[in-house]
Amino acid sequence: MSTTPSTDIDHLKHQAAARAVDYVTSGMKVGLGSGSTSEAFINLLGARVRGGLDIIGVPTSERTAQLARSLGIALGNLNDLAPLDLDIDGADEADYALDLIKGGGGALLREKIVAASAKKFIVMIHGPKLVEKMGAFPLPLEVIEFGHGETAKRIAAVVKSQGYGDVPLVLRRKNDAVYKTDNGNVIYDAAFGPVMSATAKLATALSCVPGVVEHGLYIGIASTLIVARPEGIEIIDRSATGKV
Ligand code: 5RP
Q: Is the residue at 91 inside a domain?
């Protein structure tokens, strides 16, 4: 598989991934994220493995598992390997408190389980994804298919009760069919707009809606952000945010 970036954004994703690979050392148990930045990381990791790096990975999606296997990266089961030394993944948005929106690629549930099972969760993004207020990227919610329309109405009501007004909820589709996650669930994308605040309170309220399996708000989980910009890489550690 090619590791050559083809656009400026691909180049930045590749830069972030290249810095993330430096965190991986032999003997580690490593969570492998999903999405294009994670795929850049996995490609680079595969090259290191072929060069003798001895690690075992836990994939966060079937697609990531397939890619890692094709590159000769050994994979294991989270039940057998947790706690992981590291989890390395991308994100759709991040704020300066290191809270995230994830799930643009539909893998938010397994990604969150793996991130929560790691001693350190490193997130690779490129500059425009780091924002003052999250929500320009629609928040994905993974919902059980049974009665999902009713669940969506309850989500909308909960969101309104949190002071966000009428936030449009769109059932995700792919290739003219309703999108299904690796876990057989559907996804609703909630278009808040760049207005999110008190995200921990919102996250708790969303988790309480019957039928919601998981939402894409990752609050207090990320340890480190790797932010790639044309002028260079910025590393933001949670210890520097005062929110450890
Ligand atoms: C997948 C994710 C991805 O990490 C997120 O969508 C970022 O993707 P990309 O690296 O392709 O921009 O959460 O569920």
A: yes
Whether residue 1 is contained in a domain is answered as: no
Which DSSP symbol is given to 80?
Answer: H
Q: What are the tens digits of pLDDT across the range 1-11?
A: 445 567 899 99
- Which token pair is 127? 């500059």
pLDDT single digits (tens) 125-138? 999 999 999 999 99
Residue type present at position 178? V
- Structural domain harbouring 178: 139-214
Distance between CA atoms of 170 and 160, rounded to whole angstroms? Answer: 16
Pocket lining: 111 vs ligand 1, CB cutoff 6 Å? yes
Structure confidence by residue, pLDDT tens digits, 56-96: 999 999 999 999 999 999 999 999 999 999 999 999 999 99
User: Structure pTM?
Assistant: 0.95
Residues 192 and 109 in one domain: no
> Which of these, 214, 224, 217, lies nearest to 87 by C-alpha position?
224
Tokens of 193: 């707009």
Asked whether residue 185 is assigned to any structural domain, the reply reads yes
Number of folded domains in the chain?
Answer: 2
Known catalytic residues?
A: 111
How remote is the CA of residue 54 from the centroid of ligand 1, in Å?
26
